[in-house]
Specification:
Elements (H helix, E strand, L loop, with lengths): L2 H34 L3 H4 L13 H8 L3 H32 L5 H12 L3 H14 L6 H25 L3 H9 L4 H12 L1 H17 L2 H6 L7 H5 L3 E2 L2 E2 L1 H21 L1 H9 L6
Antiparallel strand pairs: 1-2
Helix pairs in contact: 1-13, 3-13, 4-7, 4-10, 5-7, 7-10, 8-9, 10-13, 10-14
Length: 277
């Protein structure tokens, strides 16, 4: 076997493995979208029908026969607000941890990382008891506060890494010119860590948009978010898979749009610091 033939064979095997991997990753998405476009009789047919007449019945039912737009507005307000607060506060905390020296700094950094390791399900009961005493139950404000605090440790760690990579001479020059610490942070540091802010915003938004447990505990039928609304289609008479996949497809759209809009900054943020010199 010649070298060129062996090279072509290796390249062909790589492409085959890539196609198989892509198919495995994309199949659940295809199944979700295709099921949302099927009638119940087609959705549960065995063997499955590869070719079928698509219908928008499930989407019409989800959009117009329920309180979808109320749930959507709740999710949008909670996700956008908690993202803004969490990333903003995280950037301020990250700047202080990256540039200022104070007692207990290393302990604070380690404690922040440990806080992010606590799973949401463990927080459900204590958060409910605490918020119930402050009358934050059944409203958007309580959910925004929880998601802000939940994502704050991650944002602090991500943004602190970006700030530490910036040359301190830029900030020194501004301080010599008479700028305050907050002015330096707002006009110099924050624009330069734009990719890091994009990374933190995307991950924070997706977590707040898709979170289920805390939203289930802290909301009522008027303030519930879209992930909780999915459970409404798990009824005593059966599971309405067509409507579940329809609303799941709709839920996925804003997250995809938000991610791909900031894709360039996301790639820059994920690869920042990978190459030195």
């Amino acid at each position: 076997m010649t070298f060129q033939v062996k090279k072509n064979l290796t390249l062909t095997m790589k492409y085959i493995m890539i196609l198989i991997g892509a198919a495995l990753v994309l199949f659940p998405i295809y199944e979700m979208i295709s099921t949302s476009l099927k009638l119940p009789v087609d959705a549960f047919r065995l063997p499955p029908k590869l070719f079928f007449v698509p219908t928008l019945t499930n989407y019409q039912s989800v959009l117009f026969e329920s309180n979808f737009f109320r749930f959507f507005s709740n999710s949008a307000v909670v996700a956008v607000s908690s993202t803004a607060f969490s990333v903003g506060l995280g950037a301020l905390a990250a700047y202080s941890l990256a540039r200022w020296n104070f007692g207990g700094k290393k302990t604070a950094i380690a404690g922040i990382l440990l806080l992010r390791m606590i799973p949401e399900v463990i927080l459900a009961v204590p958060v409910f008891v605490l918020f119930n005493s402050f009358r934050f139950i059944d409203g958007r404000v309580g959910l925004i506060l929880v998601y802000t605090a939940l994502n704050l440790p991650f944002n602090i760690w991500v943004l602190r890494t970006f700030i530490m990579e910036l040359p301190y001479e830029l900030e020194e020059s501004a301080i010599i010119d008479g700028c305050t610490d907050f002015t330096v942070f707002r006009k110099i540091v924050l624009p330069l860590i734009g990719p890091g802010v994009a990374v933190a915003s995307i991950f924070t938004f997706r977590i707040a948009w898709n979170e289920f447990i805390l939203s289930l505990v802290l909301t009522n039928r008027f303030t519930r978010t879209l992930p909780v609304a999915v459970s409404l289609y798990l009824t005593d008479t059966g599971t309405e898979w067509g409507k579940i996949t329809a609303i799941a497809t709709i839920i996925a759209v804003p997250a995809f749009i938000f991610t791909f809009t900031a894709a360039k900054s996301l790639i820059m943020g994920l690869t920042a610091g990978a190459v030195k010199g």
